[in-house]
Amino acid sequence: MGKYEQMTDDSILEQLGERLSRYRLDRNVTQAELAREAGIHKNTVFRLEAGESTQTKNLIRVLRALGLLEQLDALVPEPVPSPLKQLEEQERQRKRAASKSGQQSESKSTGWTWDDDQGDRS
After folding, report:
1. Exposed e or buried b for every residue in 70-99, given b needs 16+ CB within 10 A?
2. pLDDT per residue over 27-65, tens digit each?
3. Domains in the chain, ordered, with CATH?
4. pTM (2 decimals)?
5. What is the DSSP secondary structure assignment for residue 98, as one 8-state letter?
6. Which of 78, 79, 113, 121 is most buried, taking the most CB atoms under 10 A from its CB?
7. Do 26 and 68 contact (CB within 8 A), yes or no?
8. CA distance 66 to 104
């Protein structure tokens, strides 16, 4: 069981807020400056850092302003299909190209044939 399983929602929000605050301070940015850069109100940054609930859009804006937006992949990774689904997808992949409809084969379009007797002029 992971460490977050034992934590309350409020505790997780507090920890997230503390981390955001440390990233902001490491960049030597005030709450007001971060708010301006993120396009949100200073009180929203304060609430996020205090572990209070806010809109997800505001969190995304703060993550973007702090240069942490790519970390969302770690937060919610892309779902990986099961091995059985991966095998099914491999089997469905094309193995060869289809012939072009409406086009004649090269032998018909050039008039070339295998029969040597037809072209014999003796």
Report:
1. eeeeeeeeeeeeeeeeeeeeeeeeeeeeee
2. 999 999 999 999 999 999 999 999 999 999 999 999 999
3. 3-70 (1.10.260.40)
4. 0.64
5. P
6. 113
7. no
8. 60
